[in-house]
Amino acid sequence: MTITTRFTGDFRAYPDAGDPGFGVYLHWPFCAAKCPYCDFNSHVRHKPVDQNRFVDAFRQEIAYTAGMTGPKTVTSIFIGGGTPSLMDPSTVGAILDTVARNWHVPDGIEITLEANPSSVEATRFRGYRDAGVNRVSMGVQALNDADLKVLGRLHDVEDALKAIRLARETFPRLSFDLIYARPNQTVAAWEAELKQAIGYAVDHLSLYQLTIEEGTPFYALHKAGKLIVPDGDLSAELYEATQAITGEAGMPAYEVSNHARPGAESRHNLTYWRYGDYAGIGAGAHGRLTLNGTRIATATERMPERWLEMVEARGAAHVEIEELEPEEQADELLLMGLRLTEGIEVSRWQALSGRPFDSARERDLIANGFLERLGNDRIRCTPAGMLILDAVVADLAI
C-alpha cells in the first residue's frame, strides 16, 4: 500500500498567512561517493545497505516522534540526504506509508525526493512516483563536464539531461540544483549555462554559490592555494547576473538561492524559512517542534549504524532535545526569514524576543540600502542586503 497523492496541478503561490505548516524531513544518509565540497551528513558504504533494517528503524523513530507531537496534519514531506535515489522504491513507499499511519497526510501534498542524475538511479523514477513522490529535486550542479569532474560528480551532462527529461515525464514538479562561483568561472560562462538550464527547468531552480566548508577536501586545497574561487567582487557580479537572468525568465528569487515560477515555490522549504514546525527523522536529522507551547530543537545521532542501534534499543536516536529560549527563537526567525524576499513580520519577531528592534540600527540599514519596510509590520532585505545577509541579521539581532 502506498500514499495516494492526487496532484491537482493547483500549486498556487503560498503567501505568508501566519501558518507555516508542519513538515516531515526524512534523511537517507548514504551516497555512492562523497563530493569534495560537501559537508552534509552523508556516508559512503562499500557493502549493500540493509534497507529492510533501516525501514524498520524509520518506522520506530517516526512512531516515537508522533508520540511526542500528538495528532498533526502534515503539509509537506521531504526525503533528503545523502542520496535518497539510492533507495529502492519499495523502501520509499514503506517509509511514506509509515508517515501516513502516524500523522494525517492529505491527498496531494508536496512530497519531494532528492535524486542524483545517474542513468541507473533515473530508471527508478516511476517507482518513486508510484510510491507517492510528486516532486523531485535533482543534484545536477553543473552543465559542463569539466566542472562536474572537478566537483566530484559521478554523472556527466548527458546523464543529467536524460534524467531531467525523464523526471519531466514522470513527476508533476521538478527542481534541480546548480552550483556557481566555481573555480575559474566567468560571468559570461555562467550566464550562458544558466540560460541553458532555464530551458530545461520546469518551474524551480536552486542556484547556490560554491562555499568552502571546513573539513572538506576543497577546504584543504583552498587553504594550500591549489583551489582558487571567485573573490568577493566577482561573486557579487555572478549573483547579480543570476538575479537578472532568472527574473527575466519569470523565475525570480523567492529565497536567496531559490527561484521559481509563481506558485511553484517549495512548500517544504517555506516551512523552514517561515520558521514553522518540522519533524526530523533519520541519521543526523534536525527538527523544530512546538510541544505544549514550548519550542524545542531536536537532533539525531549522525553516524548511520550508531543511529540504527540507538533506534532499535530505545525507539529513537535523539542526541539533542533542547528547549529554545525566546531570544534564540527570535534569532532563528531572523536568520531564516530574512532569506526570503517576502521578509518577516516585525510583530512576530518582537513577540518572540520581547523587545523592539533597535530603531537606530534599523534606520541605518535602511539608509544604506540593505533593508526596507513593507507596510507597518514587515521588513525584508534588499538585493544589496541579500549579498551581506549574515551581517544584516547580526546587526538586527544584537
Mean pLDDT comes to 92
Structural class of the secondary elements?
alpha/beta
Tell me the helix content. Answer: 40-55%
Shape: globular
Content of β-strand: 15-25%
Number of strands: 17
First-residue to last-residue Cα separation: 51 Å
Low-confidence stretches: 1-13
Q: Rg from C-alpha positions?
A: 21 Å
Element layout with pairings:
Elements (H helix, E strand, L loop, with lengths): L21 E7 L1 E2 L11 E2 L6 H19 L6 E6 L7 H14 L7 E6 L3 H4 L2 H7 L3 E7 L3 H6 L6 H14 L2 E8 L6 H14 L3 E6 L7 H7 L8 H17 L4 E3 L2 E3 L6 H7 L3 E6 L3 E6 L2 E7 L3 H11 L3 E6 L2 H12 L6 E2 H8 L5 H9 L3 E3 L4 E4 L1 H5 L1 H9 L1
Parallel strand pairs: 1-4, 1-11, 2-3, 4-5, 5-6, 6-7, 7-8
Antiparallel strand pairs: 8-10, 9-10, 12-13, 13-14, 15-17, 16-17
Helix pairs in contact: 1-2, 2-4, 7-9, 12-13, 12-16
Account of the protein in words:
The chain is an alpha/beta fold and 398 residues long. It is 41% helix and 21% strand. The chain is built from 16 helices and 17 strands. Strand 9 and strand 10 form a beta hairpin. Helix 1 runs parallel beside helix 2, helix 7 packs parallel to helix 9 and helix 12 packs antiparallel against helix 13. The N terminus is likely disordered.
